[in-house]
Amino acid sequence: MADKSVLAFGADPSAERLSTSAVQQAIATAQPGDTVVVPAGRFLTGAIFLKSDIRLHLESGAQLLGSQRLEDYPLIDTRVAGVDMRWPAGLVNAIGCSNVSITGTGTIDGQGPVWWQRFWGDDEQSGMVGEYTARGLRWVVDYDCQRPRNILVFESENILLKDFTSRESGFWNVHLCYSRHVAVEGVHISNSAGPSTDGIDIDSCEQVRVERCTVSCNDDNICIKAGRGREAAQKARAARDIVIRDCTLNSGSGITLGSETSGGIERVLIENNHFNGTGVGFRIKSARNRGGFIRHVTVRHLQLVDVRFPVLIQLNWFPQYSYGDSSNLADKPEHWRKLAEGVEGHEGLTDVSHLTLENITARRSDSQPFSRAFFIEGYPDRPIRQLTLGSITVDASEFGKISGVDGLRLDDVLVSAAAVTMDKNDDYAR
C-alpha cells in the first residue's frame, strides 16, 4: 500500500489551470490498497473517476474546486431526480466500484453559483426555470438544466465517505444511487442558496448508514428516494435498510422520504438527530402518479428548534413539478417521455404504512418563528395506514391538519398552539 500525491502527476495547487488529468493519472496508477492524496492547496478540476480498491484522501487545507465549464463533465448514463438518463458526471465519481473510500478533512467545492444562475437567474424566477414555467414546462426544467453534482456513487458497493466537507454544489451534494453497503460518517455539507442543492440523497440503495453528519443546504438535508414513474416502478429497485442517526440539520428541508417513491422505500430508522431552523423535521412527499410504497419507518429521539413543519406528509406534492404533459412528445427528448409516464390509476397512489414517530420534542426559541405542529395529508382513496405518534411534545403557532389516515394512534402527545390553523400556511414548495 502506497500514498500517491497528485502533485507528483503535475496537479496545480494554485488552481490557475485544470488538474483533471493529473488527478486522473494518480488514480490510474494506484494499485489496490493505495491512497491518492490531495494535499493542502486549491486544485481546479472537472469530473474525476475513482476505481475499485483505492482511497481518495483530502488532507487538511485541500480543496477540489469544480470547473465552471459544462464540457469538463462528460455525459454519462446516470439517474437524475428519479429518472434514468444521460446527464453530466459529478465532480467526484465512483461508478461500478467496490471498496472505495473518500476521506480526510479537506473540501470538495462545486463553485455552484454559475450553475444556480443557469437555473433561476438573478432573482430565482428567471433563468431556465422562468422560461420553462412560462411555457407550462416546469415539470422538465430540472432535468433539462444540466448541473453537476459534487459526489456521485453509482452501481457501487462497500463505499465509505468520511470527514470531508462538500460545499456549493451545482446540484445535489452527495448522490448515492443503485448502491449497497455505503457508510457516510462525519461529513459536512455546506450550501448557501442554490436550487436543488440537497445534502445527501440515498436513491434506490440498500444497507446505508449516515451518521454524525452536519448538513446545511437549500433543499432536503437528507433524502431517501426510489425512482420516479413507470420505468422506476417496473425496475422495482427499492431503497431499504437505511439508518440516519446522530446528525445535525441546519438550514434546509429536513429528512425526507420521496418524492421519488416508485421503486419503494422500506425499513428505515431515523434517530437521535438535531434540527436547528430547518423548514421541516421529518417529511414524506409523493404524488398521485408515483406509486411504490413507504413502509416500516421508525423516527425517534429527535430534537427540533425553530422548525416550521416538525412533521410534514404530503402525498400530492408540488403538482407543477410532479405531473407532466404526455401530448406532443414525438420530437422531444426521451426523458420528457419518461417524466410524463407515471404510474396510473389506484396503483399510482403511494402505499404508506407502518410509520412510528416517537420521543420527539419541537420547540421555538421565542414566540416569533411560525411553526405548525402537524401537517399530514394522506390520500382519501388510499389512506396512510398504521401511523403512531408517541411521546411527542410540540410548541407551535398552530396545531395544523391531519387527514387521510386509517389507524392513527396518539399516545402522550402534547401540543401548545395558541393560533387558529390557517389555510394560507399550507404552502411549502421546496
Could you walk me through the main structural features you see in this protein, from its secondary elements to its overall organization?
The structure is a single chain. The chain is mostly beta strands and 430 residues long. It has one domain (3-426): Single-stranded right-handed beta-helix, Pectin lyase-like (Pectate Lyase C-like, 3 Solenoid). It contains 7 helices and 33 strands. The chain has helices at 20-29, 113-120, 127-134, 138-144, 230-235, 319-322, 334-340, and strands at residues 3-5, 14-18, 35-38, 41-45, 48-49, 55-58, 62-66, 75-80, 83-88, 92-95, 98-104, 107-109, 151-154, 157-162, 165-167, 174-177, 180-185, 188-190, 200-203, 206-211, 214-216, 222-225, 239-245, 248-249, 255-258, 265-276, 280-285, 293-305, 309-314, 351-363, 372-377, 384-403, 405-419. It has a 31-stranded parallel beta sheet that branches. Strands 8-9 form a two-stranded antiparallel ribbon. Helix 2 packs parallel to helix 3 (127-134) and helix 3 (127-134) runs antiparallel to helix 4 (138-144). The longest helix has 10 residues, at 20-29.
